Amino acid sequence: MIYAELPEDQIYSMFAGLEESLGPEGWKDFEAESDRRDQARIEASILEDEPVSDTSGSETNLAMSLNRLFGGAVGPRDTTPWEEWGYVIYRTTYSDDDDWTLFKRRFEKIIGRYFIEAKGTFRIEEAKKLFALRWVEDPALFNNASPAQLASHYRSTQHPNGFDHTMFLAVTPDVVTSVLKSPLPWTVPYDRAGKLIPYVVAIDWSTETPQPLNVEDADIEEQGFRGYFNVAADSLVGDLFVFIADQSAAPYEIGTYIT
């Protein structure tokens, strides 16, 4: 069955019924097996495609941004050597290590959608190999940490050039839920007006917000920018990274208009 062919209310009902029927442990097993089959299907479809030269396709904003980030020219077809690049991401929830392992696998897979969709563009395979998330995990320091605490640690830590941005990421319990409870990203289109979006919290490195992260209303426009906002996981690579890496838009400029 292709889930995308079902009406949205039936998708919700189907997954809710499965979770209730299988129980917590059975649901985790179902998620893990679904992820495994999904990944195998993706890899098989890629292998069936015609080989594409990594330097033959059109140049993306990401490629040009990586050139600038690592000190190269901004002209077309620049071949400046790139280094590892990506985001620093803090874990602020430590209640379930099994869920955390599954979350990380699915989260990284969702982000990887960009590289599949951009296949054939200039140096995209190189960008994919060098992309990384630098996970920061320490329950003694970061369990339920506030944005101000996280930002202070981020500012006091030396980061490689490809990770030294004015914005970093954080994972809360609600973020984990958004990733684990969303239908499989390869077969169900996200409902960007509803509850199907897997997301993460993006935090301005200069924030001094002392209150704990409240993901549910982190992006309510009426409250103004509070130093952090929600961002869809599948938008972290691409234009958002370009804005942050190029410093063409500050986090508050992006977060203020998130709805």
Features:
259 residues; alpha/beta; five-stranded mixed beta sheet; 10 helices; 44% helix; disordered N terminus
Set down the secondary structure blueprint:
Elements: H1 8-48, H2 61-69, E1 85-91, H3 97-111, H4 113-117, H5 124-130, E2 131-136, H6 139-142, H7 147-156, E3 167-171, H8 173-181, E4 199-204, E5 228-232, H9 239-246, H10 251-255
Helix pairs in contact: 1-3, 2-9
General description of the model:
There is one protein chain. By secondary structure, the protein is an alpha/beta fold. It has helices at 8-48, 61-69, 97-111, 113-117, 124-130, 139-142, 147-156, 173-181, 239-246, 251-255; strands at residues 85-91, 131-136, 167-171, 199-204, 228-232. It has a five-stranded mixed β-sheet. The longest helix has 41 residues, at 8-48. The radius of gyration is 19 Å and the shape is globular.
